[in-house]
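Work Package 3 (structural annotation) set out to generate three-dimensional models for the target panel prioritized at the project kickoff. During this period the team completed the workflow that converts sequence records into discrete structure tokens, so that structures can be stored uniformly alongside our sequence database. As a representative example, we reproduce one entry of 212 residues exactly as it appears in the project archive.
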Amino acid sequence: MRPLLAERGCTVSPGVRLRSLADVIGHLGANGQTGIIDGTEIRVRRPTVGRKDRDKFISGKNKQNAVKAMLLTAADGRVLFCSPTKPGSCADITHARQLGLVRLLTEGAAVEILADAGYQGLGAQTGGRVVTPPHRKFKKNAPDWYEEMYERQQKAHSSRRIRVEHGIAHHKNWRALARHLGRREHMSDTVRALAALLSHQQTADLPPARQR
């Protein structure tokens, strides 16, 4: 069942599903909506001793063995896309590039994508379509006025993209991700299958007016 649910895609309305990142970008562009992306890590068992790619699963952020997935949600937090997993050592921005996000944004409709500091650099590559927090200009001895302005900008950006954190939290609440019970080889299918089920649940909970 896992592969079948993974290929099902994320439900946006009754009978309408988005099965690829290209489908999601097209959907957002056609409806003039903003998307939000973020990476999430799922802890997994450590590969056996002697496996040549054993260190690839060590996350640079948490120093634990993990796999990483990228979620893209709508502005209201509904899950629209979940990527296949990558080893935990893969950087968020590298994962996004490998998924073809830069090409889809530069060649497709004008879509605004909100992201955190882990994706800084994509804004320049996509003509400003990926919006990340501002770079910090002063690392030491910053003037008081700059600290206040920087904090306001950070809070304003965080308040716009907080819904993706809620979407990830709902996704990881499923027991299969809260406590890994299967093999790493099945994790891509598992995270995508749960995203498909979660999106269906979120769409079913919408009032009829929202569905139309």
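The first helix runs from residue 2 to 8.
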